[in-house]
Amino acid sequence: HMTMxxxxxxxxxxYFLFVxxxxxxxxxxxxxxxxxxxxxxxxxxYGLDGVTFVMRSxxxxxxxxxxIELQPASLENSYGKQFFLLLFAMAVFIxxxxxxxxxxxLAILMVFIGMALATSxxxxxxxxxxxVVMLFAFADGHTLFLDKVNARxxxxxxxxxxxxxxxxxxxxxxxxxxxxxxxxxSQYPDRAEKSRQETAIWLAENAPIGSKVYTCFNDGGxxxxxxxxxxxxxxxxxxxxxxxxxxxxMSEWWAMKSGELDxxxxxxxxxxxxxxxxxxxxxxxxxxxxxxxEYTLIYDDYCCSIYMSVEKAEQSGYRAIPKTDVxxxxxxxxx
Length: 335
Prior knowledge:
58% of the residues lie in helices and 7% in strands. The chain is of the alpha/beta class. A five-stranded mixed sheet has the order 2-1-3-5-4, sandwiched between helices. The two termini are 39 Å apart.
């Protein structure tokens, strides 16, 4: 909600500022709609803080987050390479073919280019805007390929067939690229993802909802979905002091992962009821808990485990699982 409403204004601004002469329309309904939408933005649990979250988050220094999607677009990762390649291709196409693209969409495209340059997570939004612009660009068949083909084709019917085939190819190809990108977002193999889900479900069925649970950055949202209070989750900006006004949890978490902060100190400070550890995304802690006599293993599934402090496990009455029973499978899962 807090991310999408500014995008609505970006798209709406294009229609408000650039009214086509060929198909004019009145701006007043757009202005009224925009005002109503702006008022509706405040219908959220966080009030003004929620409305201004997107703008304020841009001021947070995410350089220490070590999270690819929060970094500026770069040629060092696959997302950035795809972005710059497509950007270059569009620039060449627009420079030499000068397609009849409405000014509002070019303006919107420039905004999305800026967003993608700021953070890699905005690159998919650029793809969507780019896709619309390219639809306009190819609408009249102004392409290097069609210019050459049309010169050899005699009938209008054949020309329309070629044009339709190219349009279909572009549409299907674009959707295939988007689908491949979405599929590639999943960090875990299918079996590991199933392990995450089953472990979270077990905890939801066997632990009081609202319990405090340690999770790593990637797994916090899953536990929150089931009603638990997670230590951290993928909303990275919220865990910087500049945003929450209380504590720099993101830096604290990275300090623990790097060994600068002892995990036992973290547990003592937050008094976690349960520890949800993922052997793929948090392998060092996974093995650290395995060898530690201070924590009791109460559930294990492939690469995910749930621990409690020995004292809390005894008080809660959970059956302890011998750690030797899970080591061979854990090794294969996290190798």
